[in-house]
Design a protein that fits this description.
Blueprint: E1 2-4, E2 13-15, E3 22-24, E4 28-29, H1 41-44, E5 49-54, H2 67-81, H3 88-98, E6 104-109, E7 115-120, H4 126-132, E8 134-138, H5 156-163, E9 172-176, E10 182-185, E11 189-194, E12 197-200, H6 211-222, E13 227-229, H7 234-239, E14 242-247, E15 251-259, E16 265-266
Parallel strand pairs: 8-9, 8-15, 12-13
Antiparallel strand pairs: 1-2, 3-4, 3-7, 5-6, 6-7, 9-10, 11-12, 11-14, 14-15, 15-16
Length: 283
């Protein structure tokens, strides 16, 4: 049994995950293995697109689950690559079954329209990280994301960059370009605060247009809060008072320390700016 606390809920939610269960090609399969043709481009080239979502209140239609936004992102990539779309009814059917066991779903689509859905639990100590922040470390410019406008199965750069964490005390890594500008983390978009404004790198620098990023921008614009979408240069990041990263699973996690080759940068994980996002993850 796993008990997960969500910051958007007042009660505990209990999940009974099945260790080896996934949905593939309109079938629920209880196994640890997925059988693919040895010539499958998804296996050979990572030729898939995927999205990862957090299910709130066991409902795909919950406004925070953002089901339609996740499907639209998949559809955009499939149309861009001229790939076959899946039967979306089957995709929803598989998601509805797996959400009974898992709070996080990963939906993968192959070029020929096959759907593959897996589930997992929320990260350990998530509430603690949201409250007190984490340590992050910088990578080098070698770990550039492939096709950054799309979430493809070729995730090698982000995976390799994340492995750096295992040899340090950091829990996340920040990807940079060849000039040292900060782009995004291996799993999410960056946010910072200074001069009474929120700052985030623009999509034009080659970062993933995260669904949670769009959610936050919409929320802040409704509150007429200033958002600066500018390049995060080495000079700019030194002036930020607080920074964090976001994705659809962890919501928003402050970063209190960024390890660099020439010393660490410290930020305030308890900054008052976070009160502006207080209601963002509430039903």
């Amino acid at each position: 049994m796993f008990v997960a606390y969500s910051s958007c809920q007042l009660s505990l939610v209990t999940f009974f995950p099945v260790p080896f269960m996934y949905w593939y090609c309109n079938k629920l399969i209880e196994s640890q293995k997925l059988e693919l043709d040895i010539n499958d481009p998804g296996l050979i080239y990572g030729a898939t697109v995927f999205t990862t979502l957090r299910v709130y209140d066991h409902s795909l239609d919950h406004n925070l689950t953002n089901w339609q936004a996740h499907c639209s992102r998949l559809q955009f990539s499939l149309q861009t690559f001229d790939w076959t779309e899946p039967d979306w009814d089957f995709v929803r059917q598989g998601a509805e079954i797996l959400l009974q066991h898992f709070p996080v779903l990963r939906i993968t689509i192959f070029p020929d329209g096959r759907e593959w859905i897996t589930g997992r639990l929320l990260p350990e100590n998530l509430t603690q990280k949201q409250k007190h922040g984490i340590i992050a470390t910088l990578t080098n410019g070698e770990f550039a994301r492939s096709l950054p406008s799309h979430k493809t199965g070729n995730y090698l750069s982000a995976w390799l960059a994340r492995n750096i964490v295992q040899s340090s005390k950091a829990e996340e890594v920040i990807l940079i370009d060849c000039e040292g500008n900060w782009l995004e983390t291996s799993t999410g978009n960056l946010w910072g605060w200074k001069e009474e404004s929120w700052w985030t790198p623009p999509l034009t620098v080659g970062i993933l247009p995260g669904i949670e990023r769009s959610h936050i921008i919409t929320h802040l614009e409704k509150r007429q809060t200033t958002i600066q979408q500018q390049l995060w240069t080495p000079e700019l990041v030194k002036k930020l008072e607080a920074i964090s990263y976001t994705n659809s699973v962890v919501e928003i996690i402050p970063i209190h320390t960024v390890q660099q080759p020439i010393g660490s940068l410290e930020y305030n994980p308890y900054h008052p700016c976070y009160s502006q996002l207080k209601g963002l993850f509430l039903p």
